[in-house]
Amino acid sequence: MRTRQILCPTDFSETASHALRYAIEMANFYHVGLRIVHVIEQPVGVDNYQMLVVTPAELAQSMEDSAAENMKTLLKELNSELSVESVIRHGSAAEQILKEAEVSEAGMIVIASHGRTGLAHFLHTNVAESVANRAECPVLVVK
């Protein structure tokens, strides 16, 4: 952990920004790099409605462009002397975060938890929980 970069997934939410501050603090403390990853979930198209305004490919491209712009803004706001890399992946958030951690040989993952409970927790997949349970490196879950 002390010599390998920290991976910090983001969905550009306020909660993710909070987790990013922890990741930056830890990266500064250990003098390691920071890798920020954003995962774009694949859009699901329904052909039966025949009212598609955009195709799934156009929607995916729009999501990619938006993510790239958000990532640029985030990197400008960091104003840090850390070595910072950014990555945009496509697919299931938990799966792609785990793959990125493996490929980049991350020493730690710092991830935000949106703190859902009750029915909301049941209805939405908990990415942070899935990553924490399956990661091969330490995971810090930030609320």
Layout of SSEs?
Layout: E1 6-9, H1 14-30, E2 34-40, H2 56-78, E3 84-90, H3 93-103, E4 108-112, H4 118-123, H5 127-134, E5 139-142
Parallel strand pairs: 1-2, 1-4, 2-3, 4-5
Helix pairs in contact: 3-5
InterPro entries: Rossmann-like_a/b/a_fold, Universal_stress_UspA, UspA
Pfam families: Usp (PF00582)
Organism: Shewanella pneumatophori
What does this structure look like?
- This protein is of the alpha/beta class.
- It has one domain (6-42, 56-142): HUPs (Rossmann fold).
- It is built from five helices and five strands, in the order βαβαβαβααβ.
- The chain has helices spanning 14-30, 56-78, 93-103, 118-123, 127-134; strands at residues 6-9, 34-40, 84-90, 108-112, 139-142.
- The protein has a five-stranded parallel beta sheet, with helices on both faces.
- α2 (56-78) links the parallel β2 and β3 (84-90).
- The longest helix is centred in the middle third of the chain and has 23 residues, at 56-78.
- The radius of gyration is 16 Å and the shape is globular.
- It comes from Shewanella pneumatophori.
- InterPro entries: Rossmann-like_a/b/a_fold, Universal_stress_UspA, UspA.
- This is Universal stress protein.
- Residues 4-143 form the UspA domain.
